[in-house]
Amino acid sequence: MASDRTSEPTDGRKRSSRRRSLPVVELVRRASDQFRAVTGADVESVSEVDPTDDGWQLRVETVEVARIPDTTSVLASYQVRLNTDGDLISYSRVRRYARGQLDGDR
Q1: pLDDT in tens, 40-62
Q2: What is the C-alpha to C-alpha distance for residues 35 and 81, in angstroms, rounded to an integer?
Q3: Residue 37: its H or E element
Q4: What whole-number distance in Å separates Cα of residue 2 and Cα of residue 51?
Q5: pTM of this prediction?
Q6: What domains lie within the chain, and their CATH numbers?
Q7: Which of 10, 14, 42, 98 has a C-alpha 20 to 30 A away from that of 105?
Q8: What is the full DSSP assignment across 58-101?
């Protein structure tokens, strides 16, 4: 069974048995860059960042169809999963909506 216990190396320093995770800012940057590289879509915002047993899960928002006026543009929410190193392992679209639409407006 894996744990977060520390062990004593021979030099007396404590060392975690789990790899140190990346700062959230770096995770978001890596997720945005990799998502853009794979899909060609820019990440407009990140609305969720959650740790998981095997990495991170993020919810990112993108513009799928830009329109004028901007309030009529079509956006999408994607669930993005990163491993513990911050590498993209999966993504899936979970919602499409008009920019001016609130959650209760479905």
Answers
A1: 999 999 999 999 999 999 999 99
A2: 10
A3: helix 24-39
A4: 16
A5: 0.75
A6: 19-99 (3.10.450)
A7: 42
A8: EEEEEEEE--SSGGG-EEEEEEEEEETTS-EEEEEEEEEEETT-
